[in-house]
Design brief:
single chain; 7-stranded antiparallel sheet; SH3 type barrels; mainly beta; 3 domains; 258 residues
Length: 258
Amino acid sequence: MKRIIVNIVDLRKEPNHRSERVSQALFGTEVQELAPAGDWRLIQTPDGYRGFVEGHRIASWNPNERDNEWKISVPIVPVQEERTNGIITRLTLDTRFAARPEADSLLIPLPSGVVGRIPRAAAVPAEKRMPGEELIRLGLTLVGTPYLWGGCSPFGFDCSGFIQRLFHFCFNVWLPRDTAEQRKQGVPVPLDELRPGDLCFFPGHVGLYIGGGRLLHSNRHHNGISLDRLLFPPSTSYARELQSKLERIRRISPDSSG
């Protein structure tokens, strides 16, 4: 088993930079190397997704087993070099890593041999599961994040990448990567029983219902994560379009394994 050794890497449909970005993987993610393709490698991520990455972006690297595992709990945090305090990279929400606490910091041994430092307040223990309302609170902190096809991080999300990341951070479960598969998860819910935390599905699109008639979602219309009125009299033509195209509502238990 190998790991991603940069802060974030694109998975490509074909082994070249011009090919479509199909997903992303974060630093420290364990991946299965399936096949070489010149300087590229076909890999599979823990959610079962496959794509090509440059070979030097992955390595057989295992953190110190004595260090505890943490996950980033803020959208983006700079990592400073332990001795010089210079910024050496930036890690994003839900990045999993081994580190040792020191005062109000976490020290992260990096594959390069350098030790990085982040504020302890920017991470929580990796095994920690959040209460259901955290899904919405966290999602709201990401409003305005740019839309990015194949994006799975606060540098840029697509609609299903946004939902997948929220559920993985909060509940430590992997939902499928794509909307077509996410819409098969959980149980169906009628519109009159819609409640905060439910997923709303449209043709090729998914969003999170947060209550008050509002949908939180990453979309091309606003070029990022936005709030739109799904219920009640819509205030814009886009909101009316969302209402007319709502196809399915699903409720997913935090204990779901996807």
